[in-house]
Write a structure and sequence with these properties.
The protein is of the alpha/beta class. It has one domain: Rossmann fold (3-Layer(aba) Sandwich), CATH 3.40.50.720. It is built from 9 helices and 12 strands. The chain has helices spanning 14-22, 41-50, 65-70, 72-97, 130-142, 177-189, 205-210, 221-225, 241-246; strands at 6-9, 28-29, 55-58, 102-106, 148-152, 155-156, 165-167, 171-172, 175-176, 194-197, 203-204, 217-219. The strands form 4 sheets. A 6-stranded parallel β-sheet has the order 2-1-3-4-5-10. Strands 6-9 form a two-stranded parallel sheet. Strand 4 (102-106), helix 5 (130-142) and strand 5 form a beta-alpha-beta unit.
Length: 248
């Protein structure tokens, strides 16, 4: 289905900017945080009352793991309460105007334990850090809608790999941000509802990044864990068979 107007939250973030600049979504609303602060119910209601759209791509989040560890209250306000505020107004707008707004929620592979990898959509969700828990909380609200898709994923910017080393014993299904935008476009137009893992094939973080940054050096996961204040996944790779089937 082709949607007439799309509301994008988190338009100033890396993924949001990529979505806006892709050209795939010509009629898109991308309000600033000042105009649409998702943590403020009144502001969300006012925006929904004053604007019409038939789809939402919800990217806004407190996504930095270290920041979530240091400020869990703000992580709760943004990732859980903010998502709940949006979902509530979607339900209200659907009921008032007899609509069926499509809601795409960008979640994370961090809702899984991050130990054994190859996670299926119906596997146990036991996050390994506070960021993952708050994104899982947002998922709970989104599941109250009818026309929704929860996209569990992990992405990176190939042209902006700022670190100088990466572990060869940590595995994931991270994908380039432009490929994720392509996936979002396809999923938005599809009639798929529910939760779906979207990513690339399992690969070590080092091998994944080395393709785009040949100068990157190898390290071990334990070396990185000594430098950060949050837990990191040993293997967060996703089973993407459902995604492969959908994009055929």
């Amino acid at each position: 289905m082709v949607y007439k107007k799309i509301l994008l939250t988190g338009g100033s973030g890396n993924l949001g900017q990529e979505i806006t600049e892709s050209g795939y979504f010509p009629k898109i609303l991308s309000p600033s945080h000042k105009i649409l602060d998702i943590t403020e119910p009144k502001k969300v209601k006012e925006f929904f009352d004053e604007n019409d759209f038939d789809a939402i791509i919800h990217c806004a989040a407190l996504a930095r793991m270290e920041e979530c560890e240091k400020n869990p209250i703000q992580a709760i306000k943004t990732n859980i309460v903010g998502t709940c505020n949006l979902v509530s107004e979607v339900i209200n707008k659907n009921n008032k105007k007899n609509m069926d707004i499509r809601f795409l929620y960008i979640s994370t592979d961090g809702v899984y334990p991050g130990i054994s990898g190859n996670y299926l959509e119906n596997d146990a969700t036991i996050p390994y850090n506070k960021y993952g828990w708050t994104k899982l909380g947002g998922e709970c609200a989104v599941n109250l809608l009818n026309n929704f898709c929860i996209i569990r994923t992990n992405f990176f910017e190939p042209d902006n790999i700022i670190f100088e080393d990466s572990p060869d014993d940590s595995f994931s299904s991270k994908m380039p941000v432009n490929e994720l935008v392509n996936a979002i476009c396809l999923i938005l137009k599809s009639d798929f509802t529910g939760t779906i893992n979207v990513g690339s094939e399992r690969e070590s973080d080092f091998d994944k990044y080395k393709y785009f940054k040949p100068s990157i050096k190898v390290c071990k996961l334990n070396d990185m864990l000594k430098q950060v204040s949050f837990k990191m996944a040993k293997d967060s790779s996703l089973n993407i068979n459902l995604w492969k089937k959908l994009k055929k």
